[in-house]
Amino acid sequence: MDATKLRRAVARTRLAPIAGFPKRLARVARHDATVLATSARWLLTSREHHNYTYDLTRLSRQHLAWFVSVSCDAPVRQVRDWFAELEGDDRLRGHIEAATAAASRRGLADRHVRYARRVGWYAIVRARRPAHVVETGVDKGLGSCVLAAALLRNAAEGHPGRLTSLDINPEAGYLARATPWADVVDLVIGDSVASITALDRPVDLFLHDSDHSRVHEKREFEEVEAKLAPNAMLLTDNVTATNVLAEHAERTGRRFLAYRETPARHWYPGDGIGVAW
Ligand SMILES: C[S@@+](CC[C@H](N)C(=O)[O-])C[C@H]1O[C@@H](n2cnc3c(N)ncnc32)[C@H](O)[C@@H]1O
Question: Does the keyword Mitochondrion apply (predicted)?
Fold first, then answer.
């Protein structure tokens, strides 16, 4: 009997689980070894303790390009060009590296710039050309810089816009305090729901990325509703954890899509972008 016939014969007997065990063990050990190696490299080379930064896998980038293309009705080629535009912005990259190195909390930040799903935020701003973007949750200000860079490009093409960035932490946003990015950013310190209530200009693009509890995310979307411009777009950075934006979209008669990112060479499983429009 040849090996294949023998395997098939054993598979039909009570010995099958024992015979299959070495192969199953090898598979899970290979997987766990990769996770352990990635985790060990991260522990030794990164300083980040939250809001991790990483690159996306090639496949994840491709899916993100199509996600933006469909939700913004923009050609996917153009979306890829916008990704490249952000990643080729050496002035922005140089500023983020230098500001990170000079920051008082540099011991908890990586100098190397990796935008992950924020390239999607950038492309959405380039596609929609909003006059007013609101981002809740700023942390160091990496997302604010990315959104501001897109607004500056839009302005150079005749479509100016401003970003209102909301955070409860007075130390937030140190990356977004330099010219030219700061020229289009209004940083507001306080609880995001109260700050949304106080907004005095219509919002064309809203991004939730603050307190990721279900209750807070829901309150932000409910509160911003009265402030939205016609055809505004809503984004959430919390889509891998809650269904809040999908439920809000259904209640308010919008469409909804979710993208889940895959980080390259990182133990973190990644976040995502939810969009309602
Ligand atoms: C995930 S980080 C934001 C990341 C940022 N958007 C980026 O692109 O890197 C979450 C931020 O939300 C802020 N935050 C938490 N609760 C908040 C609240 N109730 N109002 C406003 N900001 C809040 C935190 O201080 C923290 O800086």
Answer: no
Q: Is 165 in the pocket of ligand 1 (CB under 6 A)?
A: no
Nearest-angstrom CA–CA distance, 20 and 42 = 34
* pLDDT tens profile 16-45: 999 999 999 999 999 999 999 999 999 999
Domain ranges in the chain? 3-43, 46-276
Length of the chain: 277
Q: How far apart are CA 11 and CA 146, in angstroms?
A: 55
Does a cis peptide bond (omega within 30 degrees of 0) precede residue 230?
A: no
Q: Is 42 exposed, middle or buried (0-12, 13-18, 19+ CB in 10 A)?
A: middle
Burial of 12 (0-12, 13-18, 19+ CB in 10 A): exposed
User: pLDDT tier at 57 (50, 70, 90 boundaries)?
Assistant: very high
Cα of 62 from ligand 1 centre, angstroms:
27
Query: Considering the domain 46-276, what is its CATH architecture?
Result: 3-Layer(aba) Sandwich (3.40)
The reply to whether ligand 1 has any atom less than 6 angstroms from the CB of 166 is: yes
pLDDT in tens, 183-195: 999 999 999 999 9
Of 123, 112, 137, which Cα lies nearest the Cα of 80?
123
Q: What is the mean pLDDT of residues 145-166?
A: 98
